[in-house]
Design goal:
Elements: H1 24-27, H2 36-48, H3 52-57, E1 75-87, E2 94-105, E3 108-121, E4 124-133
Antiparallel strand pairs: 1-2, 2-3, 3-4
The chain binds zinc ion.
Length: 134
Amino acid sequence: MSRKSPVAAACPCGSGLAYTLCCQPFHGMSAFPPTAEALMRSRYSAFALKHAEYLRFSWHPDTCPESLDLDDEPLKWLGLTIVSTDKGLAGDLEGRVEFVARYKAGGRAGRLAEKSRFVRFDGRWVYLDGEVNA
Ligand SMILES: [Zn+2]
């Protein structure tokens, strides 16, 4: 038996890190993701955890929906794969992240492939919009 403390819950974004060391500080809005990819991951985790407040916080005000109710959301998010990133680093003002997110809805598996655009707003990364690939 290991004498280490119990394994902390893995972060839903699939980073391999514990949630407390990965997306949770961002969800607490006490820290901001340093890159567009980190923001993308934190938003995926927020969808998985139904954290609507954080999703709205990390959404550009111009494109953020009036309301976001995830409580009746039928999707169960199963995993995230980052396909590619373009800019979105510390010195950039915009960035793109292409990803595939897997989900289950009504017993059926599905996948969402999207190219998302992120920009700086108020000095932090926010989600602007995305192009869904069929
Ligand atoms: Zn994470």
